[in-house]
Amino acid sequence: MNLPPLAAIRAFEAAARHGSFTKAAEELSMTQAAVSYQIKLLEERIGTALFLRRPRQVTLTEIGARLSPVISEAFDMMRAAIAATRENADGVLTITTIPTFAANWLVPRLGSFQLAQPALAVRLQATREIVDFSRQDADVGIRSGSGRWPGMIAHKIFDADFTPMLNPALAASIGGVKTPADLLKLPIVDPSDPWWQLWFAAAGIPEPDLRGDPRSRYGDQHLEGKAVIAGQGVGILTPAFYETELAQGQLIQPFDIVGTADHFYWLVYPEARRNVPKIRAFRDWLLGQLEER
Amino acid sequence: MNLPPLAAIRAFEAAARHGSFTKAAEELSMTQAAVSYQIKLLEERIGTALFLRRPRQVTLTEIGARLSPVISEAFDMMRAAIAATRENADGVLTITTIPTFAANWLVPRLGSFQLAQPALAVRLQATREIVDFSRQDADVGIRSGSGRWPGMIAHKIFDADFTPMLNPALAASIGGVKTPADLLKLPIVDPSDPWWQLWFAAAGIPEPDLRGDPRSRYGDQHLEGKAVIAGQGVGILTPAFYETELAQGQLIQPFDIVGTADHFYWLVYPEARRNVPKIRAFRDWLLGQLEER
DNA sequence: AATCTCACATAAGCTGTACTTATGCATGAT
DNA sequence: ATCATGCATAAGTACAGCTTATGTGAGATT
How far apart are CA B116 and CA A88, in angstroms? Predict the structure, then answer.
C-alpha cells in the first residue's frame, strides 16, 4: 500500500500535537490555510475524518486519535536517526591512504591527532585504489601522484624520495659504507625496485650489479623497512618515513644523495568539502606535524 | 530540528531497500533521474554521502547503512498505522441518533444488523444535538425534521406521529375507553406534551381539560412509554415505536386517529459518503427492516 | 443584545519543487 | 571492440502545495 503524501502526514502530525491548525502552521512555517488544505487532503485520501471542527479548536476523532501517536513516533524515529547521522557524519573521520604511508607515517602519529581532537573518531582505509570520493566512503585521502586532480584540493606532504639505508651493525660488518659502491658488497633488499637504478645513476654508478635474491622482495616499503632494520640487507627507502629510526640509530643513511621521481605524497579531499570541520581539523593537524620537523 | 524533505527520505528508503535507483524509481512510479536528484538533495541536506556510486550498482555508505533500517522501520510503522486506520474506518460504524429512536427502535433491532454484518462494529451516540458531520464523529445520523439538509442524503424512516396508548388493565378500570373523552378520566402521562393538544383537536375535542400532574413528566418518549406500560396513565406515543408491545397486548391503541406534525424520522448521511460500504450496508439494512412491517 | 474576536474553510491564483525527457559517461558483460 | 546497464546532469515543465484574501460560525466581551 502506498503512503499518502508525506506533506499531508507531516501537517497532520503537527496539528494533532498542537490541537490547532494555526499553531501547526506556525511550527511548519506555513499558513493556516495550507495546513487546512493538507489535512483535508489526507482525510479524503484515507477516507475518514481525522479532526472534528469545533468552534474555537479542532479535536481528533477517535480514528485520528489512534493514528496520531503512531505517526508522531515514526517521525521522532526519523528525526533521531537523522540527528544521529549528522553526529556520525561530524564525528567520524574516514581516511583512505596508501598502506605504506599508513604504516610508516600516519599510524605512529595518529595518537597525537586523537589527543588533539578527542571528539573525532578515525577510521582508516588502507588501499592502493586511486582515490575517488564518489565511490569510496572516505573524507580525506592520502595518495601519491602529480597533485593535479580536478575538483580536489591537494596539499603536498613530502617528496616520495629515496636513498639507501641499512642497519649500522650491517654497515660495520664490512668495515663501514664509505662509497656507493660499498653497498654492492651487501645483500640488497628488493633489488627489483626501480628506485635502485635511479639512485645509483644519481650516485654516479649507471649500471650497478644488483644480485637479485628472490627471497628479498616485499612489494611494500613497510615490510622492506622492517627487513632493513632487522639487518637483512640494504634497502632503498624514503627518509621521511624513518625519521625516528634514523634519530635512534636503528638505521643509518650513509649518503646525502637522494633520488627522486618527482612524485609526492598528497593529502587530498573534495574542494566542496574543504570547510567541513573534521576535514579542516585533520588538514591543520597534518600540516602542523610536517612543520614540526 | 526539521526533517529533510520527506520526498527525499522516501526516495532514499526505497533506493536503500533495492540497492538501485532504477528499481526504486519503478517502485515509486517515477524516473531514475528523479530518484537520483532526490538522493543528491538529501545527501546535501544532511551533509554526508549516503550511497557509493559503483559501476552498475549503488551501495550504502556506512552512515547510509545505519540510517536506512531506521527510516524503513519508521515508514513501516506509518504504513501499518494508516492501514489500521483504514480498517478501523471501514470496520466501525458510528451512528448518532436521538435517544428516543435509539431506545425504542434501533437498539432492539441492532442485533439483526450485527448478525447480517458481522465484520462491522457499531458505536452508538445518543444525543439530541443537530446532526453536523463536520463536528460529530459519526458516519450516519438519525434525526427528526423536515428532511431538507443541504449536502445530505435523507431517507424517511417513518412519521413521527402520535396517538394515545395505555395499559389494557388501566382501560378496563374505567370500563374501557370508548370515546376520546374517556381518556380524560385517566391520569395523563406528561400533560404538557404539545402532542396532546394536537391529537385532541384532531379527535374533535379542541380544549381538553388536561389535569397536570407534576410528577408525570418525563421529557423522553422512552421513559414515558415505560410509565404507560406500567399502567401509570395514558401516554401519547408514536405507534411505530411500540409495535411489539401492541402486538403482545402490553399496550393498546384505543383509536385509529393519529396526530401528525409533518415531522419525520430520517436516516441522514453526507452525500459524498453515500457509497462507503458500511454506510451502504446500514442504509440497506434499515430500509429493509421498514419494509418487513 | 450587539459586537468583537478567534479559529478554520474556501476560492483563486501563483510559485517553486519535484518531476520528465534527453543525453552523457563509466564500466562490466558479451 | 562493441554493447548494455545504471547513474549523473542539464534543461524544461507541470502541478502540488503554497499564499493571499475572504467568508463563516460560535465563543467571548461589552
Answer: 58
Considering the domain A90-160+263-292 in this protein, what is its CATH number?
A: 3.40.190.10
Chain A contact for B49 (CB, 8 A cutoff): yes
Q: What is the DSSP string of A80-147?
A: HHHHHHHHHHHHEEEEEE-HHHIIIIIHHHHHHHHHH-TT-EEEEEE--SPP-TTTS--SEEEEEE-S
Identify the pLDDT of residue B267: 92
The tens digit of pLDDT for each residue in B104-119 reads: 889 889 999 999 999 9
**Chain B CB contacts of A79 below 8 Å:** 1, 3
The C1' atom of C5 and the CA atom of A57 lie apart, in whole Å, by: 14
CB pairs under 8 A between A and B: 124
Do the beta carbons of residue B106 and residue B95 sit within 8 Å?
yes
What does the alpha-carbon distance between residue A159 and residue B154 come to, in Å, rounded to a whole number?
91
Mean pLDDT confidence for B182-198: 85
The superfamily CATH assigns to domain A163-248 is: Periplasmic binding protein-like II (3.40.190.10)
CATH architecture assigned to B6-89: Orthogonal Bundle (1.10)
pLDDT at A62: 86
d(CA B215, CA A269) in angstroms, rounded, equals: 93
* pLDDT single digits (tens) A204-226: 888 877 765 555 556 677 778 88
Instruction: Report the pLDDT value the prediction gives residue B215, as an integer from 0 to 100.
Output: 53
- C-alpha distances in Å from residue A246, one per residue of A10, A166, A177, A225: 65, 10, 16, 12
B79 in contact with A, Cβ within 8 Å: yes
Residue ranges of domains in chain B: 6-89, 91-156+263-292, 163-248
Q: Give the CA-to-C1' distance from A54 to D27 in angstroms.
A: 11
Sort out which chain A residues have CB atoms less than 8 A from B61's CB and list them: 137
- Nearest CB partner across the interface for A82, out of B3, B54, B92: B3
Please give the average per-residue pLDDT across A83-94, as a whole number.
85
Nearest CA in chain B to A50: B137
Residues of chain A with C-beta less than 8 angstroms from the C-beta of B63? 85, 88-89
Based on the number of CB atoms within 10 Å of its own CB, is A61 exposed (0-12), middle (13-18) or buried (19 or more)?
Answer: buried
Query: Could you please report the per-residue DSSP string of B181-247?
Result: GGGGGSPBS-TT-HHHHHHHHHTT-SS------TT---SSHHHHHHHHHTTSSBEEE-GGGGHHHHH
The Cβ-side half-sphere exposure at A191, using a 13 Å CA radius, reads: 16
Query: Could you tell me if B156 and B268 are in contact, meaning their C-beta atoms sit under 8 angstroms apart?
Result: no
Q: Measure the CA angle with vertex B3, ends B76 and A281; round to 5°.
A: 120
d(CA B268, CA B142): 6
Per CATH, which fold does B91-156+263-292 belong to?
A: D-Maltodextrin-Binding Protein; domain 2 (3.40.190)
User: Is B163-248 in the same CATH topology as B6-89?
Assistant: no
> CA B132 to CA B129: how far, in whole Å?
8
